[in-house]
Amino acid sequence: MEQHRTRPPQHAPRRGTPPAHLPPQARRRPPAGRPPAPRPQRPVRQPGRMPNPRLTGLGGGLFCLAVMFLLGLLDQLLFGASPTVYGVLFLPVCALTALWVRGSDLLTAPVVVPIAFAAGLLPVADDSGGILGRLMGLVTGLATQAGWLYGGTLIAGVIVIVRRVRLVNRRRRAARVG
Predict the structure, then answer these.
(1) pLDDT in tens, 104-121
(2) Cα separations (Å) of 55 from 47, 61, 71, 107, 160?
(3) pLDDT per residue over 80-90, tens digit each?
(4) Which residue in 52, 66, 98, 140 has the fewest CB atoms around it within 10 Å?
(5) What whole-number distance in Å separates Cα of residue 85 and Cα of residue 77?
(6) Centroid of chain to Cα 15
């Protein structure tokens, strides 16, 4: 039978020594007599500049999905479910999704964009009655509006490729310098 230790360890770390579980940067101590260096402050957003949010892959997908569904509802209310208006509104959402996804999740943007197009097309699709009628309207809408779908996916793909190339080049330069 195993005996578990019931007493705490007798040896504690010396006073003034940072814990071992901290990263090396936190374990460094400033030389004696000098105050610690101030931490860098986050830059203050200047007025007139565009926001630069960074969404995770899931956040980018949820953003695109929610915006396209709301735009589909808005299109149905204001324009009588015009597929052309919906397609035109889809293009800037694709660009924003590809621009706002963070660098490590870039490849998710061209994947979530078509899914969001289909989800947002639900309110716009022709409803001739029942679940099967709604499904048939969705399939017809996807078939007839494929140009907008491909165009938006292409926009997201091009933006993602350009951002990825810039990110790789920036990392290579940093590796060469450092």
Answers:
(1) 999 999 999 999 999 999
(2) 22, 9, 20, 12, 14
(3) 889 999 999 99
(4) 52
(5) 12
(6) 44
